Amino acid sequence: MAERKTDKPVRTPKKTSPLGWLFLGIIKFYQLFISPLLGPNCRFQPTCSAYAVEAIRTHGALRGGYLSIRRILKCHPWGGFGYDPVPQSARDSAEVSAHGPDCCGKKKKSEAAKSGLPHDEGMTSHG
Questions:
Q1: In degrees, to the nearest 5, what angle opens at C-alpha 38 toward C-alphas 33 and 39?
Q2: 73 DSSP assignment
Q3: What angle do CA 7, 12, 16 make, to 5 degrees?
Q4: pTM to 2 decimals?
Q5: Whose CA is closest to 57, among 12, 96, 91, 93?
Q6: Distance (Å, rounded) from C-alpha 39 to C-alpha 71?
Q7: CA distances for 43 relative to 18, 46, 119, angstroms
Q8: What SS3 string covers 1-52?
Q9: Which pLDDT value is given to residue 68?
Q10: Surface-to-core class of residue 71, CB atoms within 10 Å of its CB (0-12 exposed, 13-18 middle, 19+ buried)
């Protein structure tokens, strides 16, 4: 079976605490009952509520809650807009940097040319 490639980094979810579950429940209530009444007003992708869910699952209730509030405060007419992903957790960043920038199929074409191999050959995947 072929591997599926995505541009989105793989995130390892943290175990959700009771406080995290409370936050996620409040967000789900908002998504189901309040958001439909307000209509599509989102300036960012993902939406602030989807961002909050991902931030809490990735970083935990406290840091994820902080990132979510910071994101919501940016949502005003003079704030930003567009794609604004949740930052990687330190754990996920460490996994990426442990292999190095040229590892896991991200080897530069020029380096592949120097080795005499086509760009797709000779790549190893580990981790």
A1: 105
A2: H
A3: 135
A4: 0.64
A5: 12
A6: 19
A7: 30, 9, 39
A8: CCCCCCCCCCCCCCCCCHHHHHHHHHHHHHHHHHHHHHCCCCCEECCHHHHH
A9: 97
A10: buried
